[in-house]
Structure formats: C-alpha cells, structure tokens
Amino acid sequence: MTNKNENSNADDEGELDPKKEEPRAIKIAKELQKEQRESEQLHVDPEQVLEELEKRQPQSSDE
After folding, report:
1. Per-residue pLDDT tens for 12-59?
2. From CA 20, how far away is CA 17, in angstroms rounded?
C-alpha cells in the first residue's frame, strides 16, 4: 500500500513520466484555446452582428 501512496505523491509533485506529461500539456493547451475562442465571442459588438444579419437577409430573399 505504501507504494501506491508514494506513486501518487510523486504525481502531485509534478514528477510524472514524460509520456504522461505530453497528454496533460495537450489538454491544457486545448483548454486555453477554448477559453480564448469563448472570450473572442464575448467581445463581438451586437450592432455588428445585426449589420451582418441584415446583409445576409436581402441576399437570401432575392434568390
């Protein structure tokens, strides 16, 4: 049982195998990219969205 505790303590201290580190780094990078995309969506000007919708509506009604 002490071996399990020693292994989990090593993981908590950041002493992971390089094989385990890579997926963790990829996971963190994906989370950061997701947060960045979400923050970009929050900074969209509502008036700009309405203008884009108005531009698209006449095009679809003319067809």
Report:
1. 555 556 566 678 999 999 999 999 888 877 667 888 889 989 988 865
2. 5
Please, what's the b/e burial string for 47-59 (b: 16 or more CB within 10 A of its CB; e: otherwise)? eeeeeeeeeeeee
CA angle centred on 31, ends 30 and 34, rounded to 5°? 85
What's this model's pTM, rounded to 2 decimal places? Answer: 0.35
CB 16 within 8 A of CB 24: yes
Q: Residue 24 contacts by C-beta under 8 Å, 6 or more apart in sequence?
A: 16
